[in-house]
Amino acid sequence: MKRKEYINILIIILLLSFSYYRYINRNYSINRTRFLMDTQVEISITSKNKNIEQQLDKAFSIIELYDNIFSYYNPNSLLYHINNSDSLHIRINDDLYNVLVLAGDLFYKSGYLYDVTIAPLSDIWNFDDEIIPDELLIKQAQNMVGFDRIGFTNEYIYLPEGMKINLGSISKGYIIDKIIDYFIESNILEGFVNAGGDLRFYSNDRRKWRIGIQNPRDRNSIIMSLRIPDMAVVTSGDYERYFINNDIRYHHILNPLTGFPATPTVSVTILSQNAFLADALSTAAFVMNPFDAIELIKTFNDTEAVIYFYDDEGEPISLKTEGIKMYISD
Questions:
Q1: Residue 129 and residue 179 share a domain
Q2: Which of 74, 198, 215, 267 is an S-S bond match for 237, by CB 3.0 to 4.6 Å?
Q3: Do residues 270 and 258 touch, judged by C-beta distance below 8 A?
Q4: Residue 255 belongs to a domain with what CATH number?
């Protein structure tokens, strides 16, 4: 065989090898948004699996599965059944039990300010029509609020008549973590879940992600930029659902002890290893005194925060945990 033929064969082998290398190392990416859990949910993934759309569909189906447990509004959900049952003792499952355990822990640690039984109070506030409830109506609703009045085991829950549970401040985080678990089990290379601002990032090469914290008084500006590893980032703010009446901002994050929107905090951002804790803790910290909230956050490992609030003179103040400084980006 002539030398030129050897060279041609070698070139062909190299081209085939390169093509095969590109084939086995090919990555597929996809990003979709759907309206689930009463909010816009965005999921983005990168995978070596050419059936990546099926992987994405599976991720969204996980949300639908857990929505049938935690949804306050879905008539087919377990929680809806509990809230609207004539029975005081109702069987629950492990997922609902796990959520109630953390909710109870934060209820006591927040000084009774984080309370998932706040539903009767939340129901009488109409933010769409900008109606402030009558104070008598607020007091009546407050009589139906109090996590310490319910009882539960890993099998049953006892819910007194007239009381209702709303897990909107905690269940999204729990579900997001379940999706990330699926990413890991399915060998997905990287991705993120954004459920109405509740975020968690994942990558198998420990990449860094850039995010911005919205200015609570200017939707078009960022008040802080962060560069973080695979973590959850959850922000609770007074700027998502609110109305202004006589120069007073009425927002949807209520203080169960007053019956009115919590003050003086305007924004809380939590960084944590899981979205479950970050979701609940962002609301708990929001309704608490900011200084007490920072001290509570410090008791959780691998958890950082920044809280924005206004002092008595109307001046903006930020409180930060020490560890968050390593994530702040210019």
A1: no
A2: 267
A3: no
A4: 3.10.520.10
User: Tokens 């968050």 appear where?
Assistant: 324
Question: pLDDT tens for residues 103-139?
Answer: 999 999 999 999 999 999 999 999 999 999 999 999 9
Question: Among all chains, which residue has been given the structure tokens 């609207």?
Answer: 84
Q: Distance (Å, rounded) from C-alpha 193 to C-alpha 209?
A: 13
Q: How far is CA 35 from the centre of its chain?
A: 15
Q: Which of 33, 75, 114 is nearest to 284 (CA)?
A: 114
Give the type of residue at 32: R
- The pTM (predicted TM-score) of the whole model is 0.90
Which residue, 76, 72, 148, is CA-closest to 110?
148
Determine the Cα–Cα distance for residues 159 and 152; give it in Å rounded to an integer.
9
Residue count (the chain): 330
Nearest to 271 by CA among 262, 263, 281: 281
In single-letter form, the type of residue at position 29 comes to S
Residue-averaged pLDDT of the chain: 90
How far apart, in whole angstroms, are the C-alpha atoms of residue 268 and residue 140?
29
Instruction: Enumerate the β-bridge partners of residue 242.
Output: 251
Q: Could you give the CA distance from residue 286 to residue 308 in angstroms, rounded to a whole number?
A: 9
pLDDT of residue 205: 67
Asked if residue 186 and residue 62 are part of one domain, the reply reads yes
For residue 86, tell me if it sits in a domain: yes
